[in-house]
UniProtKB/TrEMBL annotation:
PROSITE patterns: VOC. Residues 2-115 form the VOC domain. InterPro entries: Glyas_Bleomycin-R_OHBP_Dase, Glyas_Fos-R_dOase_dom, VOC_core. This is VOC family protein. It comes from the Bacteria.
Length: 116
C-alpha cells in the first residue's frame, strides 16, 4: 500500500480570514477551500500541507489526520480485516475524493482517502 501524503487537520470554531495571512507568513499558500475546510501547502514542497477544519461536511466527527493513499479500497479492506472501527463509511465525496474514517488504537480519527 502506497502512501502519497499525510496531513494534520487542525480544528477551529469558525473560519478566520486571518488564517491565510498567518500561514502565508510561514510560507504556505492556500490550495483549497470549501468554507468548512481550508488547506495550505508549501509552494516548494507541495505534499507539505495542513488543513483547518470547522466541521466535516459529511461525517459525524472531525478527523485529526488525513492520509492520502494510492488505493483507498485496499486500505479499507485491510482495516476491516483487522476489526478496526470504521467511523465514517467508505464513500465517494462530491469534492473528488473517495474516503473513509477509521479510529486508531489511541482513539484518534483518521481520514483515509484517494483522489478520484
Amino acid at each position: 500500500m502506497s502512501i502519497r501524503r499525510v496531513m494534520p487537520v487542525l480544528h477551529a470554531e469558525a473560519a478566520d480570514p486571518a488564517d491565510g495571512e498567518f500561514y502565508a507568513a510561514l510560507g504556505f499558500e492556500q490550495v483549497m477551500t470549501h468554507g468548512w475546510i481550508t488547506t495550505y501547502a508549501s509552494p516548494t514542497t507541495p505534499a507539505a500541507q495542513l488543513s483547518i477544519m470547522t466541521a466535516d461536511r459529511t461525517a459525524p466527527v472531525n478527523p485529526e489526520v488525513s492520509i492520502e493513499v494510492e488505493d483507498v479500497d485496499a486500505v479499507h479492506d485491510a482495516m476491516r480485516a483487522r476489526g478496526a472501527e470504521i467511523v465514517h463509511p467508505l464513500q465517494d465525496e462530491d469534492w473528488g475524493v473517495r474516503r473513509f474514517f477509521v479510529r486508531d488504537p489511541h482513539g484518534r480519527v483518521l481520514n483515509v482517502l484517494s483522489h478520484r
